[in-house]
Structure formats: C-alpha cells, structure tokens
C-alpha cells in the first residue's frame, strides 16, 4: 500500500526510514519524470537515462538517512542524479568519439522532413557534447529546462555566480551555432 | 558576446534596454535556445522504470540493527519538552554538577587500592560511611596504622600483614569528604603514603596524603 499522495515528503521519508520500503514508490512517482527528463536531455540516450535514474533512486534509498532536509528530498535526489549524469558524460567522453552518439529516432511521416529534423537535432546534441559536464548541466537547466539561477543553485549547491559563469562559457562554446538562427 | 546580451540572457536586463544590434543578437540566442528545447529529447519516465526501481530496492538486504540505530540516532527530529520537565532536568543536572564540582576541586582521588564500600545507609539516620582500603609496603615493621582527620589523628585503625610479605593492608570506614591522612609505623614513625595522588602541606614542613571519598550511589 503506497498510501496517500497527500503525505509530505518529510512524512514519506520518515515512513521509509521506519521500515516502510513501499513508501519509496511515492518519491519515485513524484520525482521520476523530472529526473528522467533531465537525464535524457543531458545524456541523450533513453536507456542510459533510465539506468542513471534507477541508480540515482537506489542510491537515494540507501543514503536516505543522510538526507538533511527531508522536506526537500526531491532536490536531494536531483543532485544525486545530476552527479551521476556528469560522471556518465565524463566517462563517455573518455571512451567514445563524437561519432558514437546514440541513434536519434526519426519522427513524422515525411522522410525528408524527418531527416532534416534529425540533422538539426544531431547537430545540437553534438554541440552539447563539446561542453564540459558542468557547462552542459548548467546550460540545460537554464536554457532548456528554463529554471531560475537561484533554483538551480539551491539544487546543485553551487553559487549563482558560478552557475552564470558556466552558462556563459557554454554559450561561448555554442556561439558557432548562432549563425543559423540569425 | 556583448555584456548587455549576456545580462539579458541571464535575466538581469530587459530586452527593451538593449541597443538595436544587441537586441538582434539576443533574439538569435532566443531562437537557438528554443531549438534546443524543441530538439532535445524529452519524455516522461517510462512506466516500467518505477517497478524496476522498486524491485531493486525490495531486493536490498535489510539494514542491521547497528545501522538502523545509527540512522535513527542521526536523523534530526523535533523534540517536545514541557517547561516543568525541562526545569526538573536542569535541576538534576545542576545538582550533579554541584557534587562533581565539589569533588573535582579536591586535590585528588583517592583511595588506595581496593573499592570503597557503603556500610551504613540512611534508613537508620546514621551517617553514610565508606570502607576505604589502605595499604603500605613496610617490610620489617612491627605495626602499621593509618590515621587522619577522619579519626581525629588518634591512630586507632591498625593495618595487618597476615602473610608476612611486608604489605600492610586494612579497610577503614571513612565519611564522604576530603581527608588528610598519614601512616604511623611502629607507633612512632610517620610516613606519607607514597601512592597517594594528591598531597597537602601539614603546616609543619611535612606532607599529608589526601583522600577524597565520594558519596556512594544509592
């Protein structure tokens, strides 16, 4: 029995720590989409994203007792995931070339349009691949997910000034793409 | 990138404050970031992932008692305390500190080998006394007594050496408090206990050993 969705995060965390493992399902439901969406945008591959989210949730469960602010367990889980994504990107950069990007599924019935779309998407993804993991994370959170700097800073536990610098460096690195959008 | 464009993209400057050229650049950036939003993959978590996560979690071993206790002890939680119980607790702590403080101010512990024992308790109204074990290495001595302010220096507590190894021992009832004491060997030689942890000047150029006896726990 998962229980009422009206339970606060802190109540859910307390129940889990008291031995109610099934209560963790509530946290998976509450934060699964946000975590998966971020992982997918950062790493690009659905299977990798799913693995990263699973690892983050399992690690979160094992370390739940060390979550200092159970009311913000979502942000805490997000930080675990974000760190996992950065490690994944670093590892992939170390072991693969840009050409080994995951296949991008085509969409739409028009093969020509689909090809053009996938070309654009591939170009943007390849451009993201040139960023450091920290720059990519900051750029995605700010400009793709549309979060405020203060919100990102609170979640990632870094200063707003540091985040702005990361996003600025990311923009500089992506400036070559700008010509197509003038 | 121009500084005003950067500030605009960071949300620190409205578009209307930008010069014409900067505004065009800012709009180009908006189109590029919009393209990222559209083109980067986005999706809800696959439905099967929830069960996969929970399956792995359910298969994890139960934490041991020690880990459970540590997790319980480390978890912050609100504590509700009534003013009355808080006051009683504070009084208990103050009492404890008062007695400990009184003892710690003393020159030292110190009963010589052996554990003090309570011999008389308050049920009869008699003062509490503690048996203290004294000992002195005095080979060749014919008699050894221990005396101090606990017996008004009368020298009435003799020690014994039943096995003749030169170690004289005896248990003497002493009231809780701080006491100076000496050994009296063969009825005429005063010896300071060499194993005392604290000493005090006797005012005549000699040192008395100092003994502190705590109130026994009830």
Keywords:
heterodimer; A: 182 residues; mainly alpha; 68% helix; B: 218 residues; alpha+beta; 6-stranded antiparallel sheet; 3-stranded antiparallel sheet; 9 strands
Distance between the termini of chain B: 80 Å
**What oligomeric state do these chains adopt?**
heterodimer
Give the fraction of residues assigned to helices of chain A: 55-70%
Question: Helicity of chain B, in percent?
Answer: 25-40%
Integer-rounded radius of gyration of chain B: 40 Å
Residue stretches of chain A low in confidence (pLDDT < 50, at least 5 long) are 97-101, 103-108
β-sheet strand percentage of chain A: under 5%
Distance between the termini of chain A: 55 Å
Cα-atom Rg of chain A, whole angstroms?
Answer: 18 Å
Largest sheet of chain B: 6 strands, antiparallel
Which structural class matches the secondary elements of chain A?
mainly alpha
Count, helices of chain A: 8
Structural class category of chain B: alpha+beta
Mean pLDDT of chain B: 79
Number of discrete helical segments of chain B: 5
Helix-strand pattern of chain B, N to C? HHHHHEEEEEEEEE
Largest interface (CB < 8 Å): A-B, 51 and 38 residues
